[in-house]
Write a structure and sequence with these properties.
Elements (H helix, E strand, L loop, with lengths): L3 H9 L3 H12 L8 H21 L10 H17 L4 H23 L4 H21 L1 H4 L24 H22 L2 H11 L1 H6 L4 H27 L9 H14 L4 H21 L4 H15 L1 H12 L3
């Protein structure tokens, strides 16, 4: 009979498909210039989707305002670069710290009530932060956005070039490190307790799982990941606008998880790649009607079924 320790070890063991995937992602750095900007966007969106997957796919917490943490992380990194230091790693650390604090403070509001209540509260938090940023133009730039964000070379050696090679390497490395951490977390007893809570809170509580503390920890962790994505967005574009708090940011990341699937960490990454490449390809063909084709794709996608498209990939990457 397999022990619990052996089962956990098997779940966290690397599979060959994962190694191939990450080697291919880093191997993309050898591509000619012109592809790195879209690859950088995919990496940032994948990290943002990964943060939402931690609470939606594993803890069962629904959110319509996850952009709140993306925006706070972006403005934290942008303001640090503009007024104090342009060191990317310092901005990333600050963004993670500020978003973590915000996630912890708001978690007690979000975790009250039903799923519908959580939807409204998360959306309200994002709206409040967006209006607050708009009301403080002397700090945030208001509707004009935060300009004058100048980034120092990464690690003191690698400049952020116009082609986006350094930006992609930076974003991908951050995604890889945080995905490794998330992989360890969801495969640990803590991650398994989150899955138990998602399936049945009453049963988990009866088994002695501290449901409230686990959900607060998961929500705080997801906020930290979203803040990191916000920092990458601000640093690689050298600009922050009120757009980072908009509802469409939260809606887009939900669409990414719908496409890729929630509850497995690579779902956000696969969904981000599919969503961004589809958006970029359709927008280049029909700039005026690309949203129509995206909507049509989503309708067909739901009718066909996600498992037919990503089921094989999930079996290769996820060990159960």
């Amino acid at each position: 009979m397999t022990s619990a320790k052996e089962a956990l070890t098997r779940r966290t063991r690397w599979r060959w498909a994962e190694t191939v995937f990450w080697l291919a992602a880093f191997g993309a750095l050898l591509l000619p210039p012109g592809k790195f900007l879209i690859l950088n966007e995919i990496a940032i969106l994948a990290l943002f989707a990964l943060s939402l997957d931690l609470i939606l796919g594993y803890a069962g917490i629904v959110s319509l305002g996850h952009a709140a943490f993306l925006g706070v992380g972006a403005y934290s990194a942008g303001l640090l670069a503009k007024h104090v230091t342009g060191d990317p790693l310092a901005g990333l650390a600050l963004a993670i710290g500020v978003s973590t604090i915000l996630g912890f403070c708001t978690s007690f509001l979000v975790l009250r009530g039903s799923d519908l209540t959580r939807l409204m509260v998360t959306l309200g938090v994002a709206l409040v932060l967006g209006e607050l940023a708009n009301a403080l133009p002397q700090y945030t730039g208001g509707a004009d956005g935060l300009q004058g964000v100048v980034m120092a070379p990464l690690l003191g050696r690698f400049d952020f070039d116009l082609f986006g090679r350094t930006a992609y390497a930076y974003s991908l490395t951050t995604l890889f490190v945080l995905a490794l951490l998330a992989r360890r977390i969801v495969g640990s007893p803590f991650g398994l307790s989150l899955s138990a809570i998602r399936c049945n809170q009453l049963r988990a509580r009866a088994l002695g799982v501290p449901v409230g503390k686990r959900l607060v920890a998961a929500y705080t962790l997801a906020a930290a990941y979203a803040g990191a994505a916000g920092a990458l967005l601000a640093q690689t574009t050298a600009f922050v606008s009120l757009d980072v708090f908009d509802f469409h940011r939260s809606a887009d990341v939900l669409l990414v998880l719908i496409i890729g699937g929630a509850g497995w960490l690579y779902g956000g990454i696969a969904g981000a790649a599919a969503f961004k490449l589809l958006q970029d390809g359709i927008a280049s063909l029909t700039p005026q009607y690309w949203q129509f084709w995206i909507g049509l794709f989503l309708v067909v996608f739901v009718l066909v079924g996600r498992e037919r498209l990503f089921g094989g990939l999930r079996k290769l990457l996820v060990r159960r």
